[in-house]
Amino acid sequence: MSDDQPTKRFDAQNGDAPTVRFEPAGAAPPPGGGEPPVGPPVDPPSSPEPKSRKLLIILSIIGGVLLIAVVIMLTLLFSRGSGGDITPVPTESPSATPSETPTPSTSATEEAEPTAEPTTAPPPATASPSFATFSAPTSANCTAANPTSQLTFAWSSANATMAWFGVRTTNAKEEPYEEVPTTATYTFDYQCSNETEIYTVTLEDAAGNLTHKTVTVTKN
């Protein structure tokens, strides 16, 4: 036998034809014995949980902000009621007049002055050479028969280490005729062709100090 069920024909009465839904064989009848509603399938409603959770979060934030605002307002009201209005005290601006510079006292000035250091005495000067004795002629005995005249010089010295005899100079060390002893008797021939002549004996000590004796001899 075929599984197809025979279809029934319904004639329309009063011009209206009822809509009949055909179910396949073996389908369970709807509960209550009635016929299932005819129409397009309806999607199940979406769960309202996510929207309600977001709304709850927003309301919690708004409530927290309002609570903080109320606490601040109450704090301000209590502080004003207990202490009264707080008026800021203006701070005085520094005056433009310059401050006076304190003048140092006389005692402070005296203390600031450095104490004079004791001066040390200079070392004693080294004794320069000196002539203990000195003798020399001032004239020469010239004659027609003698073209020269012998002159005699004599000296003694102290602190001298060297001595020089010079002619026509006042520094026998710079222009020496010859080096001589520091204590001596010395002879020299005067040239009678000259009207006058200059002679010098120079002494020197170990430090290089000089002492001079100069004499001018004139021809007779």
Q: Radius of gyration, Cα only, in angstroms?
A: 75 Å
> Spans with pLDDT under 50 lasting ≥5 residues?
none
Approximate helicity band: 10-25%
User: How would you characterize the largest beta sheet?
Assistant: 5 strands, mixed
* Termini separation: 202 Å
Number of strands: 8
Give the number of helices.
2
Alpha-beta content class: alpha+beta
From the spread of the alpha carbons, the general shape counts as rod-shaped
Order of helices and strands: HHEEEEEEEE
Proportion of residues in extended strands = 25-35%
Query: Spatial order of the strands in the main sheet?
Result: 2-8-7-4-5
Give the oligomer, counting copies of the same chain as homo and different chains as hetero: single chain
**Rounded mean pLDDT score:** 77
Architecture overview:
The chain is of the alpha+beta class and 220 residues long. 19% of the residues lie in helices and 25% in strands. The chain has 2 helices and 8 strands. The chain has a 5-stranded mixed sheet, with no helix packed on it.
Indicate the topology:
Blueprint (H helix, E strand, L loop, with lengths): L48 H35 L22 H7 L17 E6 L3 E2 L7 E11 L3 E6 L10 E3 L3 E8 L4 E9 L5 E10 L1
Parallel strand pairs: 2-8
Antiparallel strand pairs: 1-3, 3-6, 4-5, 4-7, 7-8
